[in-house]
Amino acid sequence: CGGTSPALLLKTAKKVGLRGIAVTDHNTVEGAKQAIRLNKDTDFEVISGCEISTDLGHTLLYYVDETPRKKDFFDVLEFAKAHNAIVSIAHPFRLPYVIEFKQDLKKLSKKIDAVECFNGRNIFPFSDLRAVRAAEGAGLAKTGGSDGHFWFEVGKGVTIFEGDLRDALRMKKTGVSGSH
Hints:
- The protein has helices at residues 6-15, 30-38, 73-82, 125-138, 165-170, and strands spanning 20-26, 45-53, 58-62, 86-89, 93-94, 99-100, 114-119, 141-145, 157-160, 175-178.
- It is of the alpha/beta class.
- A six-stranded mixed β-sheet has the order 1-2-3-4-7-8. It has a two-stranded antiparallel sheet with strand order 5-6. A two-stranded antiparallel sheet has the order 9-10.
- Helix 4 (125-138) links the parallel strand 7 and strand 8 (141-145).
- It is globular and about 40 Å long.
């Protein structure tokens, strides 16, 4: 969804020391599919995903090979369940854009896997801190992301885990790090 080609995205991610990347363009998996095709490094994982603009806020889907057709949040959750996807609520308290997720995360904790607790494009750190408190209060895993619309933003936010990301998220054994 940004100005970075999949080839430059892969090159930059490896250059900044990432061991893998989730490509989550807005409302499409096509960029992720291209990055997967281009990646020839068996020691570097590319996860196919997308960031869906739902009626309740932005929702990240990881491990999907197609884009949900519907934009209703609860329809997206059904799509994710049917496709064995991981669901993370993206930048739930981002300011100054006032893009706030419009549901109680604790009530949704059985239907979602994680909350994005570090977003490289958040201008105010308290937006991320509020997300951390919400994730912990709801018993959800944490994800971190660059939200890299441009090559120089790649790696500004990361999810820290051991082993397989899907397993780490489901077991809630992830951390986040990054710089604004």
